[in-house]
Amino acid sequence: MAKPPITPVILTGGSGTRLWPLSRKARAKQFLPLASERTMLEETIARATGDRFARPMLVGGAAQADMLRALGGDARLMLEPMARNTAAAIALAALALAPDALMLVMPSDHVIADVPAFHAAIETAAELAAEGWLVTFGIAPDGPETGYGYILEGGAIGDGAFAVERFVEKPDRETAEQFLAAGGYHWNGGIFLFTARAYMAGLDAHAAEIAAAARAAMADVAADADSIEPDAAAFGTAPSISIDYAVMEKAERVAVVPVSMGWSDLGSWDALHELLEKDAAGNALSGEVLAIDSANTLIRTDGPSVAAVGVNDLIVVATGDAVLILPRGESQRVKDVVEALKAGEDPNNLL
Length: 351
Description:
Layout: E1 6-11, H1 40-46, E2 57-61, H2 65-71, E3 76-80, H3 85-95, E4 102-107, E5 111-112, H4 115-130, E6 134-139, E7 150-158, E8 161-168, H5 173-182, E9 185-195, H6 196-206, H7 208-218, E10 227-228, H8 232-235, H9 243-248, E11 254-259, E12 263-264, H10 269-275, E13 284-286, E14 289-292, E15 298-301, E16 306-309, E17 314-318, E18 323-327, H11 334-343
Parallel strand pairs: 1-2, 1-4, 2-3, 3-10, 6-11, 13-15, 14-16, 15-17
Antiparallel strand pairs: 4-9, 5-12, 6-9, 7-8, 7-9, 8-11, 17-18
């Protein structure tokens, strides 16, 4: 008996300011070629393509429509009239699918190096989802990361799957170290698999305002159209809440499938340096770059030529209108630049 197809539902919103100055509001990191020659969105679509998968659906802002059409191939588009966080965005997609459709919900800006491992985890999750479980994928932690939420597994509910004991907010380092020592904790990567029916039932039970707003927004549109534009006034009444807070942390039948698949959310320039191929001195260089007597440095330019002499452990990113320089290991401080630009109302349109 053939297995039912899985619909990739790819969330394409997000500003990507942690990779400023390359990533901007008008062209966030999912629309950029960072880890390969293809954009991150194209990579996401490619790893959920084949006989096991149905036609993908891209969920993003109406302002992104042209980029989504250019990069999305034959994907259907769900064009949000405004951002209302992931719970409402996923509800729109669920309402455009058959109730028993399996939905593989993924961010569009993550890296997965071991695609076969991901596909194996998908098969495990799909069996549970067909039984009505809401499934999340638990990323195998490789260190006491404080930038991610964690998932604690409970009892086994099959081969390679567990009931979720609890979701845990981003911990401090000491707590994260305790999680790794105890075992059974996984990073929450924001990847899910469930049926449209099960997700909407979860919303109805735990976030009814979001479910009602999504249904009202979809009431008068053709749910089978190639490009769907929900009603803005109705959708605007949806509370802005993530799927984790709205459903996953409250529902009863929530499962986690642990997986080690070379995952990264590329949330910083340091993360990109770690991922990219480097020369013998540990430099990751891209664009017109000359590095002399320099080591362990990321230099990327999409604008002017960059020459670096005698520098170590730096991040240097140049575009046509901005240059970022900061010590490697402190790339989270990009947010300081973004906040300063916002405070000055960004007179040069650098955001």
